[in-house]
Amino acid sequence: MADSYDVVIIGGGPGGYNCAIRAGQLGLKTACVEMRKTLGGTCLNVGCIPSKALLHASELYEAAGKEFASLGIETGKVSINMEKFMGQKDEAVSGLTKGVAGLLKKNKVDHIEGKGHIAGKGKVVVTAADGSKKTLETKHIVIATGSEVTPLPGVEIDEKQIVSSTGALELDKVPGKLLLIGAGVIGLELGSVWRRLGSEVTVVEYLDRVLPTMDGEISRQAKRLFEKQGMIFKLSRKVTGVEKSKSGLKVTTEAAKGGEEEVLDADVVLVCIGRRPYTEGLGLENVGVEADKRGFIPNDHFRTSAEGVWVIGDATHGPMLAHKAEDDGVACAELIAGKAGHVNYLATPSVVYTRPEIASVGYTEEQLKEQGREYRVGKFPFMANSRARTNHDTDGFVKVLADAKTDEILGGHIMGPHAGEMIGELALAMEFRAASEDIARTSHAHPTLSEAIRQASMGVEGWTMQM
Ligand code: FAD
Ligand code: NAD
């Protein structure tokens, strides 16, 4: 006899496991099917968490070698123990993935190990690693199968010399020359890790700027700062092939518009040109659901075109971010339970965990110009912020964009220390549809980095004080 559920969620990443927990809390009989050995999806296993563990440790390593002495801290020669450096990352991953398993249990969600296949309306067949099959019957199916690396034709990933982000989190030695294809979030984060440990990092980017989805001013300044740190950028160029030889890799590049060939040497190549939805073997055809040209499953408030089949997270449209997947999962479970569920994607922040950190919420200036919307700008540099000065960490600035007539905050962009933590204030303000004046008149403790957000907000009406 098939096991019977209210909801079967396929995928145990941030989308799937949060959807499962919320469904469990709402009293729905819920199963979460995951084909990986551990829960947590891309984010916990090979994404957010391991990358941040390496970013944190490598940032301290660089600071110990280059900055401690100027603070009067004398350490002697600083070196990396690669086994421990990787071990602390693995420890963070395993602790957190076990934590998710505990949360599912606490909320009475059945965790079913194996690959889920939609066999028809209300029917999911799970194939375990040993080949055994189990059929689940359910009122609702939630697709939370996430994403995979977008491949680059002609550049075959072996996860040793030519790696994706997964291989770049596992390298056993520091590559002499690391070449990144793509100057997006993964490239700049993982490129920073290996540069700090000693790699010469070259980045080949198809477009004429780094971090193309960020505010233009931020992306221009970020490029200058990363160049100062030693990264080499080859913008408006594409990789046409990678040849393996005994001495390493020969990477052929040419101008994005064609011609101007240049061959670059590398020890390791990291392909990071984006991610695409993962729906392989899912059985979408059995319920008449079709992905779009880029592989995303379209949704209307998480409902697909098939009744009783829902989709959340990286498998559908919107930013490919863990907290977006989590928000989708919660809202989807609430809708299934007959409650209201909604996600305001405009207030979804995004963060690049480099140094300086780069964080953004809402519209960029370019998007507002495109919309023809009248807006005002308030800006404040960390060079003029007392806490940043005290900490000798002054690169970057805060920019607040507000509607010219109503003063409603339309966007916030921060490049600087702890930007990823501070963007929460601007995201909350946008969620409350606050005006820039609301932040400008809110007391902020002194001396804190967040005073820069207040000063930038004061700048919208031209009364910035600390300059
Ligand atoms: P996923 O996390 O991809 O989870 C989907 C799960 O479904 C997987 O575990 C997969 O094994 C499983 N699955 C797929 N098909 C089936 C099937 N048929 N049956 C059973 N199981 C199946 N985002 C951030 O917000 N912050 C960050 O700092 C950040 N850093 C990142 C760093 C890297 C290197 C990468 C690659 C990504 C990063 N991301 C980050 C993005 C983030 O990981 C994703 O947006 C997020 O994991 C998406 O969640 P999801 O639940 O939709 O999918
Ligand atoms: P991305 O979309 O951030 O960047 C890809 C870059 O590659 C872009 O700049 C693009 O113009 C460039 N590109 C595309 N095709 C190219 C080609 N043929 N040659 C050269 N350049 C090319 O993608 P990513 O860095 O691979 O990250 C994937 C996803 O993972 C992102 O959507 C991101 O949201 C998520 N992620 C998030 C975080 C975070 O939140 N801190 C960290 C890592 C990854």
- Our Rg estimate from Cα atoms comes to 24 Å
Mean pLDDT: 97
CATH topology of the largest domain: FAD/NAD(P)-binding domain
Number of strands: 22
**What is the oligomeric state here?**
single chain
How does the overall form come out from the CA principal axes?
globular
Helix fraction by DSSP (H/I, runs of at least 4): 25-40%
Poorly predicted runs of 5 or more residues: none
CATH-assigned homologous superfamily of the largest domain: FAD/NAD(P)-binding domain
- Ions and ligands: flavin-adenine dinucleotide, nicotinamide-adenine-dinucleotide
Structural class: alpha/beta
Roughly what fraction of the amino acids lie in strands?
25-35%
Q: Assign the CATH architecture of the largest domain.
A: 3-Layer(bba) Sandwich
Largest sheet: 7 strands, mixed
Which helices and strands appear, and what pairs or packs with what?
Blueprint: E1 3-10, H1 14-25, E2 30-34, H2 41-46, H3 48-66, H4 82-106, E3 110-113, E4 115-120, E5 123-127, E6 133-143, E7 147-149, E8 162-163, H5 165-168, E9 177-181, H6 185-197, E10 200-204, H7 216-228, E11 232-234, E12 237-245, E13 248-255, E14 262-266, E15 268-271, E16 275-277, E17 309-311, H8 322-336, E18 350-352, E19 357-362, H9 365-371, E20 375-381, H10 386-390, E21 397-403, E22 409-416, H11 419-431, H12 436-440, H13 451-460
Parallel strand pairs: 1-2, 1-6, 2-3, 6-17, 8-15, 9-10, 9-15, 10-11
Antiparallel strand pairs: 4-5, 5-6, 7-16, 12-13, 13-14, 18-19, 19-22, 20-21, 21-22
Helix pairs in contact: 1-8, 3-4, 3-6
The chain binds flavin-adenine dinucleotide (FAD) and nicotinamide-adenine-dinucleotide (NAD).
Nicotinamide-adenine-dinucleotide (NAD) is lined by residues 152, 181-187, 189, 204-207, 212, 238-239, 272-275, 320-321, 350-353.
